[in-house]
Design a protein that fits this description.
The chain is mainly alpha-helical. It is 65% helix and 5% strand. A 3-stranded antiparallel sheet has the order 2-1-3. Helix 11 runs antiparallel to helix 12. The longest helix has 55 residues. It is extended.
Length: 423
């Protein structure tokens, strides 16, 4: 009885190994393609969400940059007894009010729009006429073509909302050219108000700029010096490790905790400066400082040790090495981290709410200690309003905030490229 062959030939072994190798290679290529597609899907999803945000905010924000205005002529020649020299004295608006400008504007509105004009023109709209007269006193001798904010009800009716009778009236005024919806030039120059037709963003924007300035001058020098000490001078012992761990943990602490800290410390020391940019900047500086320390240490670590060794070898002191060689080379990374931290601080709302920066402030802050609001808090307050007009204004304010953030990020990129050195 013959036995089957029990041994494989060399070609059979090579074929089996080649099949196994091809199978493993195909599996790795499949995994590589899967990983690439997952990465592409993640990037596409992020870009889609960003595009959705920008399109949604832009489409809604365009309406926020517009307002409904009623147009009529205000005869000023001989309507009031006021000397033009009074307009050069303090409080010219008060002088025009005593001279009866408000009544003159109301009378002109009723003549042009009818007896219901009081319900069609926004409250306090006469002040825009007064502002124009203060800027150009020669208007007192002629007729002023006023374009004043419409009332909230009339503005809503023009958008197709509200009572049918008011909507019919709005259509008639539009057809007569007395009601228009136009670009609101004052949105970027006015402050908060009770009517969406009269609100502006300048007060909150100026408050944000002042707050960011205080944050920068406090957080940047302290953060950079801390990073230099920890990397160049601090001994490597348990205390140093404890400090480093504490700073890393502080960078991850929720922002509202810093708000509670500012409330307990800064407002206890300066109780009269509640809701001031000074207190807001000091609170945000505490939150931004750990970010600057961490980014600064990483930038300093990236400087090659040979730079330090070469400087020390030719007789430079430690301070000269740090400030003449290490710091200039690490500066691009430090500045990038600083501005990213500032951008985060610019968008923070919770810590500023804790220190009272949610008050209604109808005028731009006159200084670092004056009551103020900031852009994120202003957006938060407007988003809580019921009026449809405030919804549009909220979107417009978000667009302004996004533009502000893009400018800061653009500045970070410019500074990084400006000071970056290659070796």
């Amino acid at each position: 009885m013959s036995e089957p062959a029990m041994t494989e030939t060399t070609s059979d072994v090579q074929a089996r190994r080649r099949a196994l190798m091809d199978k493993g290679l195909a599996r790795r290529r499949t995994a590589d393609r899967r990983f690439r597609w997952l990465g592409f899907a993640a990037v596409a999803f992020s870009a889609l969400m960003l595009a959705f945000l920008l399109i949604n905010m832009s489409s809604a924000g365009i309406a926020g940059f517009q307002r409904s205005e009623v147009r009529f002529d205000v005869p000023l020649a001989g309507a009031m007894q006021i000397d033009a020299k009074r307009l050069a004295q303090p409080d010219p608006m008060g002088g025009l009010e005593l001279a009866g400008l408000e009544k003159v504007v109301e009378g002109a509105a009723k003549t042009a729009l009818g007896p219901e004009a009081d319900d069609l023109v926004g409250q306090g709209a006469w002040r825009e006429v007064a502002t124009a007269i203060v800027e150009d006193p020669s208007l007192l001798g002629g007729t002023y073509s006023a374009s004043l904010p419409a009332s909230d009800d009339l503005a809503a009716a023009q958008r197709g909302e509200g009572e049918p009778a008011m909507q019919q009236l709005a259509k008639r005024l539009v057809s007569e050219g007395k009601l228009v919806r136009t670009f609101d030039k004052g949105f970027l120059s006015r402050s908060d108000a009770t009517s969406p037709q009269s609100v502006g963003i300048w007060g909150a924007l100026k408050g944000s700029i002042l707050t960011m300035f205080i944050t920068l001058i406090l957080a940047f020098p302290v953060g950079v010096l801390s990073a230099l000490y920890l990397e160049e001078y601090a001994p490597k012992n348990r205390w140093t490790e404890w400090i480093e761990i504490s700073i890393n943990n502080l960078a991850a602490v929720p922002s509202i905790i810093f708000g509670l800290l500012g409330l307990a410390v800064f407002l206890a020391l300066f109780p009269h400066y509640r809701s001031a940019p000074l207190i807001g900047g000091m609170t945000l500086a505490l939150m931004t400082m750990p970010v600057i320390v961490i980014s600064g240490r990483n930038a300093i670590k990236a400087v090659p040790p040979s730079i330090r060794d070469a400087a020390l070898a030719i007789g430079a002191s430690k301070v000269q090495v740090v400030f003449n060689h290490v710091l200039p080379l690490a500066l691009p990374g430090i500045l990038t981290g600083t501005i990213i931290g500032m951008a985060r601080a610019l968008g923070e709302t919770a810590p500023l709410l804790m220190i009272g920066m949610r008050a209604f402030v109808a005028s731009p802050p006159s200084g670092f200690t004056a009551p103020s609001s900031v852009l994120p808090v202003q957006i938060f307050l407007w988003s809580d309003e019921i009026d449809r007009g405030f919804v549009e204004r909220t979107s417009a304010a978000i667009v302004v905030l996004l533009v502000f953030l893009l400018l800061m990020n653009g500045l970070a990129i410019y500074l990084r490229n400006r000071f970056e050195k290659r070796w």
